[in-house]
Structures are given as C-alpha cells and as structure tokens.
Specification:
By secondary structure, the protein is an all-alpha fold. The protein has twelve helices and no strands.
C-alpha cells in the first residue's frame, strides 16, 4: 500500500510539472504568434490589455463555479473595494510594465533567444534585494550572477554574429527582467492588503491593469491600428487572443500548484529546465541553426541559474530552524 501511495505521489508530481511546462511553453508560442505571426497585430499594448480582460473574466467565472460547487472549488469574493484598488495600484503599474516589455521583447526576438534576453531577472533580484530591502548577498550568489551575466553577454554576441540580434528586443528584455524583480518585491508588500490571497491580488491587479492600458493605447496610437486591422473579424485571431489570455491566467495557477506539489527549489529547477526545452523546441520548430558558442551561452545561463537556486536554498536552510521536509 505504501508503494502504491509513493507511486501515486510521483505520478501527481510529474503530472503537475508536465502541466506547468505545457502551459508555460504554449503561452510563449501563442504570444509569439500573436505578436509576430501571419495575423500579427501591431498593437502589443492592446494584445496585453485583452489578456488582462480575459484574466478578470476567468476570475469571475471561477468565482461563479465556486458558488455552485463550494465543496470542490474555493475562490475569494470579488467585490470591488476602492481602498484595495488604491493599495494595489503601485504593484499594477509595475505589472503593466512587466507584461508590456515582456511581450515587446518576445515580439522583437526569436523564441530561441527569448530565454537569454530575459535571463537577467536573477541579477536584478539580487540588486533590488540589496538596494530596496537592504539585504546583503553572499559571495556564492554573486558568482552565480556573474556567471549569468557572462552567459548573457556571450548569447548577445553570438546572436549578433548570426545576424539575428535585435537591440530593441534585448533592451525590452532587460527592462522586463527589471520589472519582474521589482514586481516580486512589491507582491510581498501588497499581499497583506488582500489578506494574503494571491487570487484576490490577481483580480485587483488585472482590474487596475485594464484601466492603465487604456490611456497608454491612446498615447501610442494603437486605437486606430486596432480598428483598421484586417483580421479584426477573424475567428482565428480572437481564438488565439483568448487562448493567450486563458493560458496567461492558468500560468499563475500551475506555478502555485507546482510549488505546492514540489518545493520552491524544484520549481526553480523545473522552470530552468523548461526554458532549455523551450529553446531546443523553438530552434527545431523554426528550423534555426545555431553555433556551438550560442548553445554554450544558453548552458552558461542555465548553469548559473541552477547554481543560484541551489545557493539560495542552502542559505535558507542555514537560516531556518531544522524541520522535516517531505517535498520532492
């Protein structure tokens, strides 16, 4: 019976990890198709805003399901509170920057280079932790960050040598990485405003984002672009837009599910391995040929990221009282 329980546990973990990989990789490919595909819309702010609208709609749909099946589904109340909206607003501004520059990066670089372009998040995490929270970082963690920087530089150099380097896409990736780091810090500060409920925070954050995107779309002239878009009435276009929004909502759920089923360290390792698989898949899907040094740059960044995750885990273990850990 014990063996059966162990087998069931590992099957559950593998299923959750597979779901995380599927949702995450599919989301990247869907967004790339929307931003650079045959039916691309030259309005990245509108695409991102629509995905936020879908996320809000998904929250209401799950809340309705929770009312109908309270024993099976749990979801917080979604009554709008103006005070909470104001408290979440600073986080939402960072969130808008994060997802906007993330999509702009994806629009301007290939999926195979996307991981390298967005690889500086760990480095910014260390910098933001020091300058905002005042927490020092160990020498081992700094070495890992230096390794990631080295891999990033090599990747940019090799992308340029291949003639596919996008300066704007790389800059967007760096800004997106900065926003991701800033976002993680603000999440910790804002969570108490929603009683620590991540779904309530997701709801309020996307409500604010929908409003914030409106003046930005007007400012950057995207409204006439959207109305004059030749595929505006295409069912396939709106299907892909909606799928992107659904998967954007789902990534938050499967991320939490993976951390719950495994551990934060395993989640980081899984995310890094997923990025490697995504890079290999993209090179095959788009029939790209890359140099040995280009692949080496990916391995250096991946190795530095894995090493950093391990260093942080050991540091947390040292600073935390001994306890029984039963996670994979």
């Amino acid at each position: 019976m014990a063996d059966k329980t162990l087998v069931q546990r590992y099957v559950h973990v593998l299923t959750v990890v597979a779901c995380y990989w599927f949702v995450s990789i599919t989301l990247v490919f869907v967004n790339k198709s929307l931003l650079s595909g045959s039916e691309k819309l030259e309005a990245p702010l509108f695409v991102t805003c629509y995905q936020c609208v879908v996320t809000v709609a998904a929250c209401y749909a799950i809340r309705a399901a929770a009312r109908s099946f309270p024993d099976r589904i749990s979801f917080p109340s979604l009554q709008l509170d103006i005070n909470i909206i104001k408290q979440v607003l600073p986080l939402s501004i960072v969130f808008v920057g994060m997802i906007t520059f993330n999509n702009l990066c994806l629009k301007n670089v290939g999926i195979s280079f996307y991981y390298i372009g967005r690889s500086l998040t760990t480095v910014f995490n260390v910098l933001m932790t020091y300058f905002i929270l005042g927490q020092k970082t160990s020498l081992s963690a700094i070495v890992c960050c230096a390794t990631i920087l080295g891999g990033f530089y090599l990747g940019v150099d090799q992308e340029g040598a291949a003639g596919s380097f996008s300066f704007s896409g790389t800059i967007y990736g760096i800004i997106a990485s900065f926003c991701v780091s800033l976002f993680s810090i603000y999440v910790k500060k804002i969570l108490p405003a929603v009683d620590g409920n991540i779904w309530a925070l997701t709801f309020y954050n996307n409500i604010n984002a929908c409003v914030l995107f409106l003046p930005l779309m007007v400012m950057f002239g995207e409204i006439p672009i959207v109305f004059n878009f030749q595929f505006l009435t295409s069912i396939n276009f709106w299907f892909m837009m909606t799928i992107g929004g659904i998967f954007g909502f789902a990534i938050g759920y499967v991320t939490g599910l993976q951390i719950q089923a495994t551990s934060p360290l395993t989640h980081n390792i899984s995310g890094t391995a997923k990025a490697a698989a995504q890079t290999v898949l993209a090179t095959h899907w788009f029939m790209e040929t890359k140099s040995s040094l280009w692949w080496l740059s990916n391995m250096v960044v991946l190795g530095g990221s894995l090493a950093y995750a391990r260093v942080r885990q050991l540091e947390m273990k040292t600073n935390t009282p001994d306890r029984t850990v039963n996670k994979v």
